[in-house]
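Repro:
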Amino acid sequence: MGNGNFSAAELEAIGRLVGNSMRESQEKVFGKVAEGTSLKKMVQDEVRTILRKSVSGHGVPWQAPLPPEDVFRLEKALYEPAGKSDELIRLQKWNDEVYTLCSILKVHPTQLASYGTFEKQWSELSKALNTQTAGSGLEWVPTGYSSRMIEFVEIAAMVANQFQSFQQPTSTYVYPVLLSDGTAYLGSEQTSNSPSMYRASTPGTDNLTFVAKKLIANYPVSDEMTEESIVPVLPVLQASIARAMAKAMDTAIINGDTSTTHFDTGYTVGTDDARRAWIGLRKMVSDANGTLGLKQDGSTWTSALGLGLLRALVEDMKVYGLAASDLTLLLNTNMFNKYKSLDQVSTTDKFGTAATIKNGTLTGVDGIGFTLSQHVEEMQNDTGIYDGTTTIDTQFLLVHKPSFIRGVMRGMTLERVRKPLYGNEYLVSTMRTAWKCIRDYLTEPVAGWSYNITK
């Protein structure tokens, strides 16, 4: 514990919180910063000023000046954020709860009835910051979700999280792609003064255009809902928002179809449905089936023959099926149980102590891992389509993960919209993201789909 009432871990956590968790913006929830000013830089510079005053003993918000080593540690944390500590995770949780409440009630954090609880819980933080005074902490009012909430969305998005992602700087972004390596050739010793140039290699390159789509979760909150009723359900509300965003991403990746009429004719898929965001895996495989033949009829699936069907699908993916670690199986609950019942893994005489009959679980087969999702539906007809009538069949997808990339232009934000004529306020959470195949899926076997498997 340093002389300034903060432990080393707390100092680093506060610094990382400023460095990582404050969203750059000119418009803040409770005020404005100067035009062209970076909020993140402003806060960092303000902390540096406070630290210098602390060292000299003038105007310090701490009870005693900070020792120089603590000042150095905090300043370093501001500009060189490290990994997450338990303290930082707790700070981010506090930030998310305060921000959610402020967004719903449209009040300053100090006006919350529960603020005393927060202030007491973070007594050390309250000694360092006076949140009511500009220049001494007012700028630290939560203005967006911390990385913890964004990570919650990433964890909940079981399918989307299987693919490489990048920070998309603009809504439309051209991404350079190396499609194939060049070729190395045999060379010979040069014996003349004007030798021929070595044969040039030509790697396969291309550009991909990512267009970010906005996903929205709009939660109505009635006028009668008070802070006392909101506080106990904060974890439920936050988890629900995260799940809604995750479900939208996952179902778009699996079931996306930008055609005028969605291929799952049993649903009414509106123009604002997340499944309209981009072309998903099922549609990709179906569109390429005439050329690639990767839409596999699985009607012969049994516990004895199922593994053979999977291996045939892997073989049909050619070079994309060589590395099992690059593949994932997208399964629903019904299909997961079918894999657990395969003859090759269900008994101890064939699968040893890892047999499903013994431990009840299975993480993969042939080195290929499982990704479970409710959006790999189990109510298809014998063509793999949900028509609302024939719902006796199930399905699974096999995907080459490195062939797909997800762009993230903006993580989750939260806004409150007041509609007095409806007696409601709306908690609106949005994010902007894109997902795309980096190969020509019409000619490259990057995904397979097995359908018509009797439940």
